[in-house]
Amino acid sequence: MTISSDTPNNASTDRIEKQILLKAPRSRVWRAVSNAEEFGRWFRVDFSGKQFVAGQSIQGNITYPGYEHLVMDVLVERVEPEHHLSFRWHPAAVDVSVDYSPEPTTLVVFELSEVDSGTLLRVVESGFDQIPAARREEAFRMNSGGWEEQLINIEKHVAKG
Q1: CA 133 – CA 37 distance, rounded (Å)
Q2: Which class is domain 3-159?
Q3: Alpha helices in 51-132 (DSSP H)
Q4: Which residues does the UniProt record annotate as the domain Activator of Hsp90 ATPase homologue 1/2-like C-terminal (predicted)?
Q5: pLDDT, greater one: 4 or 106
Q6: In this structure, how many other beta carbons lie within 10 angstroms of the beta carbon of residue 55?
Q7: DSSP codes of every residue in 19-67
Q8: What are the sequence ranges of the domains in the chain?
Q9: 7 has pLDDT over 60
C-alpha cells in the first residue's frame, strides 16, 4: 500500500492532497465513496438510511473510538458518478462546546481515475487558510493525519469486496 501526498512539507497550508492506488475496479471504489452507508463503514460514521445528494446536508454519528459523542455534518456539493464526489464540512470540529457554524468550511473532493492496476483515488481538502487562525494549524495537522488513516481504511474496505 502506498499513500502519497501531492504537497511537499513546505507547500501550501491551504490544502491537503493525498492519493492511493486501490486494487479494485472504479465501480467498486465509487460505491465505497458515494454510498453514504458504505462510506460510513470505512470512515467510521453512522449514515444509516441516508444518501449523498448534491445540494443537501447529511449528518451521522461518529463511531470512531473516543469521538462517539460527535456528529459529522457535511453539505454535499457535487456528485459525478464514478468520477467525483465533493462536500463541505468544518474540519476538526471536535469540541462540543464550540459553535463552528459561523466559521468557513473546507471543501473535500474525492476524484477517481481508472488505471491499469485498479483505481487511483485522490482526496483533496482545501480552504484551511480561511479557518480562524487560533485553530487553523491544529485542524490542518489533524486532518492531514486523518486522511492518511482514512485511505488505509478504504483500501481495507474495498479489498473485502
Answers
A1: 34
A2: alpha beta
A3: none
A4: 23-158
A5: 106
A6: 9
A7: EEEESS-HHHHHHHHHSHHHHHHHHTEE-TT----TT-EEEEEE-STT-
A8: 3-159
A9: no
